[in-house]
Amino acid sequence: MKIIRTVKALRKELSRRRTDGKRIGFVPTMGYFHEGHFSLMRRSVKENDVTVVSLFVNPLQFGPREDLAKYPRDLKRDRRMAGKAGVDLLFVPSVREMYSSEPLAYIEVGRIGAALCGASRPGHFRGVATVVAKFLNIVQPEVMYLGQKDAQQSAVIRRMVLDLNFPVRLVVAPTVREADGLAMSSRNVYLSPSERREAPALYKALQAARRSVLSGESDGKKIISEIKKLILEETNASIEYVSLVELGCFSPVRRIEGDVLIALAARFGGTRLIDNVIVRGHAKR
Amino acid sequence: MKIIRTVKALRKELSRRRTDGKRIGFVPTMGYFHEGHFSLMRRSVKENDVTVVSLFVNPLQFGPREDLAKYPRDLKRDRRMAGKAGVDLLFVPSVREMYSSEPLAYIEVGRIGAALCGASRPGHFRGVATVVAKFLNIVQPEVMYLGQKDAQQSAVIRRMVLDLNFPVRLVVAPTVREADGLAMSSRNVYLSPSERREAPALYKALQAARRSVLSGESDGKKIISEIKKLILEETNASIEYVSLVELGCFSPVRRIEGDVLIALAARFGGTRLIDNVIVRGHAKR
Q1: Which residues of B are catalytic?
Q2: Residues B257, B220 contacting (CB under 8 angstroms)
Q3: CA distance A17 to B107
Q4: For residue range B192-232, what is the model confidence (pLDDT) as tens digits?
Q5: Does residue A145 fall inside a structural domain?
Q6: Residue A133 falls within a domain, yes or no?
Q7: Is residue A122 part of a domain?
Q8: Residue B272 lies in a domain
Q9: Which domain holds residue B264?
Q10: CA B77/CA B83 separation, integer angstroms
Q11: Are residues A59 and A198 located together in one domain of the fold?
């Protein structure tokens, strides 16, 4: 596996392989890899001739009071893990390399990026969409792999790809979880031992909600308060949001009739965790 | 020359030629071709294996009270002219084809798009940048050709390409003019005979300003009022703006010390014309 630090060097590597007709898969990451990243890398390696993984903690998607400076980093470990997954090129650009001039051009993704995480993190999805557009233009992959855990991020990127005709296919792979159900996240390392014991309650509450919907409950409000109640009973977390939204456009759902995304964000001390499930509702008229 | 109406068909045509290692040149237009368009097409034909020209009157870049509906169109004539220039593929998508879903994702280009034409046409450069990004993703050309007449448009696109790492080289070709100096524009057909006689005064005033700068005048304000005076003396036009700005970032210039763009917009009746010159100032300290 090669580590590459400049756009120019990466383009050179890729142009050679592209001329040979190689199929390129791409996994964008902020590093500090866990099993979730690993499964995306493995899948790309399996489905393509060349796999590029970007490792870049993107300042544009962090707010001024967020955890940019203390976001966990461990290049040595990441390198080992990417190598083990069979990754060909690990792209690790500096902030200066990615934003050599003050970035004036950026991508907005309208209301999909405004709700849920976007409400508490203004500018976050603009930063995500902008850096992913840059990577797509640098790597020019056939396929890009994202994780379902960041559901809103996937929806924003899916809409950007559609609206701006990016020539790439998106694969959104299922969330990988710890044995007790906690969604894998680089931020899990921030949790204290007691917070770590409580955190699986998030997924437990989402699963209970899924069971409610599947057994006929279609009132969005009831589902939301059920989830909140379960989380507050079992943890000391503060809930940021629990939302039911339509899958594609992220519009709020009051009465569940089709596929919905149930998504939540909660804080354990200073650590913000997110999780979600997709549930197919029963249309009843 | 082939006329192509869908993104899918165009991608198919191009993917075949790309596999054969053909070099693709691209000229985005709104049609109603004049010698300016023709010179861009000729240049692309000369410098590339395949030339794609898009012909699309983009609703996203027109304001609600602008001339979208009456923008001049003549596909038959355009087709003949593109064929004569040696264009390979003329891409003429419908509005529905380009914006099949409500466009949520768009590209903003910060302050470069806010001044000059952007001030009187809010949202205009967002519309331009967004549709050009779409075309770049659909055509994936090696080179894109733009005209210097739309100087701010070129600057906006240049910045978008730079900031978002679009893998394309930009060529900005000189403005093509009528014998009397009037910049070629599809909108010139709107001019009444008397307006047409007056319109060359715009370029005459810009040339006079250029001479002033070259002979040592470095006071931006003076240059601007000189231009305004000349135009008001020789025409019945109403001036929208006359501005001196830095070439790359479009910041206003008070004291001319390096390369500047002198740009203006004026209305002859209902017809809005723009023009500009680039002048190299004398650094004097």
Answers
A1: 37
A2: no
A3: 30
A4: 999 999 999 999 999 999 999 999 999 999 999 999 999 99
A5: yes
A6: yes
A7: yes
A8: yes
A9: 186-280
A10: 10
A11: no
